[in-house]
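Homework help board

Subject: predicted structure for assignment chain

Our instructor gave us this sequence and asked us to write out the predicted structure in token form, then describe one feature. I got the tokens but I'm not sure how to describe them. Can anyone check?
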Amino acid sequence: MQLYLDTANINEIREAASWGVLSGVTTNPTLIAKEKGVDFRQVITEIAELVNGPISAETVSLDADGMVKEGVEYAAWHPNVIVKVPSTTEGLKAVYELAKKDIRCNVTLCFNAAQALMAARAGAFIISPFIGRVDDTGVDGMSLIREISAVYRQDPEISTKILAASIRHPRHIIDSAIAGADIATCPFKVLQQSMRHPLTDRGIEQFLADWRGRA
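My token output:
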């Protein structure tokens, strides 16, 4: 399973990229706004210089024509840009039209397998089920990944990648991989948490103590 970083913060992306584990980056309007006054295009192109993989840039129009217009603009910024659209009927129309132009789309805010199937049939490159937000409703978010995976795997015509989004903790990454996700996109803090374990720290301390005390 590939790992993407879910952020628009250049410093976080630069640090995570130095680990050698990143295959892509996802952004959204909230993450862009969080960076206070940055230029959208500039941020996306800077990310493209750091990560050689898909970079999701989200549209803000609610109608298909607006999404297509924005999508064509975003795709011209860099070959690795993936146009992000919502799981709506207008989003499906936009995916269908953009696919005709060989522009890849990430269909986001997916909360059921029917939305995922529709997105795949329309030509989505990526579907993004939000497992953390599903968990918040009292339903097991991982069951959504399993359902989508089962639907996709039984149809050889579907090549849409499943991207587990709304990742809240390291266990979500592993469970998503087991459930059949192709990608997990994570906040930087979750990537950091994934590489921390008290037994690792304790082992390092013991090894160093033994090394210093060797006769």
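Reply (TA_rk): Your tokens look well-formed. For the description, you could write something like this. The mean pLDDT is 97. That's the kind of observation they're looking for.
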